[in-house]
Design brief:
Layout: H1 3-16, E1 32-38, H2 46-53, H3 56-59, E2 62-68, H4 73-80, E3 85-87, H5 90-98, E4 103-108, E5 116-120, E6 135-138, H6 144-155, E7 164-167, H7 171-179, E8 185-188, E9 195-200, E10 212-216, H8 217-222, H9 224-243, H10 245-256, H11 260-271, H12 282-289, H13 309-316, H14 319-323
Parallel strand pairs: 1-2, 1-3, 6-7, 6-8
Antiparallel strand pairs: 4-10, 5-8, 5-9
């Protein structure tokens, strides 16, 4: 593992471990304390930030601390039990599960690619086919940006071995590399002034679990009511984001320090793929499995990584219909 990523992960765990005791169940009217960790500095996490900014978690009986981690740190934190909820890429979750972790996907964020290929303005790269022999910046090996880049290259008929991937910690780091001419192109969701969009991969609604809500299976079994409460808040945040764009844009501006116009553009990209009932789709997980060596995923189906039962319970109970006034 990259030493820098390992160091960042260990640091995050050291910060979180002392407060694990605060995540124990509360009694009476006290709220259950939990943490949710995200990785991508992307508008996709507006749903997580809205829950904090608008007090939606508290409304559903939870005291939730939203934590950011770079690189592999979010997966490490969730696997170790230092946090209760994850809100990061489906590709990272599946890779961890294939290595034997107890992680399971319980809600989508989203089920489709919402990424673009970017270059510097004036770059000779005008299409995906021009990437052959070039360097492409992505966030982390096996991450959503890396996986989506590989799928995009396949779609363009390019062997991924003909492209050199350069790994970065965060999406902003990719643009730093682009701006300094350290890479020829980069994969990211958020627009940045001064860069050229070579391909918008979200237009075709290509199935791919770019982001999700994850928990440990053991936590889902032992604290199912807590998971249900968190997902109630998550589903309500989706409703707020879709029906009150200004609130979602405000959270994006606040947490990503974006200019309002750029935040609105980023918001619109994700608003089209946020679903009222955020089931994990099998085809979006299968797209990730297809990127793994055949021997590594032989006889493995998407169901191994998915538990849609909490979302189904919310739907069957009428909670989601009532939320939308149906």
């Amino acid at each position: 593992m990259n030493p820098q990523l390992l160091a960042s992960g260990l640091y995050l765990l050291l910060v979180l471990l002392p407060s694990i005791a605060g995540s124990q169940a509360k009694t009476g009217s006290e709220k259950f304390s939990a943490k949710v960790i995200y990785e991508a500095l992307s508008a996709s996490n507006a749903l997580i930030w809205l829950g904090e900014d608008l007090g939606i978690y508290e409304k559903h009986g939870l005291d939730v601390k939203v934590v950011h981690g770079r690189g592999a740190a979010p997966v490490q934190a969730l696997v170790s039990g230092s946090v209760e909820f994850g809100a990061f890429g489906g590709a990272s979750t599946i890779a961890a599960a294939l290595r034997g972790s107890d992680l399971v996907l319980v809600a989508a964020k989203p089920n489709f690619m919402v990424m673009s290929i970017w270059t510097r303005k004036g770059s000779p790269i005008k299409s995906l086919t021009d990437l052959k022999g070039k360097t492409v910046g992505v966030s982390l090996a096996g991450s959503s940006t890396h996986s989506i880049a590989r799928l995009a290259l396949r779609k363009a008929g390019i062997n991924e071995k003909d492209v050199k991937f350069v790994f970065h910690g965060t999406l902003p780091d990719i643009f730093v590399s682009l701006g300094n001419d350290w890479v020829d192109a980069g994969v990211a969701s958020a627009p940045r002034p001064g860069f050229h969009e070579v391909a918008d991969l979200s237009i075709e609604r290509i199935p791919f679990l770019q982001g999700a809500i994850q928990v440990q299976r053991g936590f889902l079994q032992s604290r199912r009511p807590v998971v249900l409460d968190f997902l109630k808040a998550y589903v309500e945040s989706i409703k707020v984001a879709k029906e009150k764009p200004d609130l979602a844009v405000g959270s994006i501006v606040k947490h990503l320090r974006m200019k309002p116009d750029a935040a609105r553009t980023a918001y619109r990209s994700f608003a089209n793929v946020w679903e009222e009932v955020p089931y994990i789709r099998s085809e979006s997980v299968q797209a990730i499995l297809d990127l793994h060596p055949r021997d590594a995923v032989k006889n493995i189906t998407p169901d191994k990584f998915i538990d849609n039962s909490p979302i189904k319970e919310l739907e069957d109970s009428g909670f989601i219909k009532q939320l939308y006034g149906k």
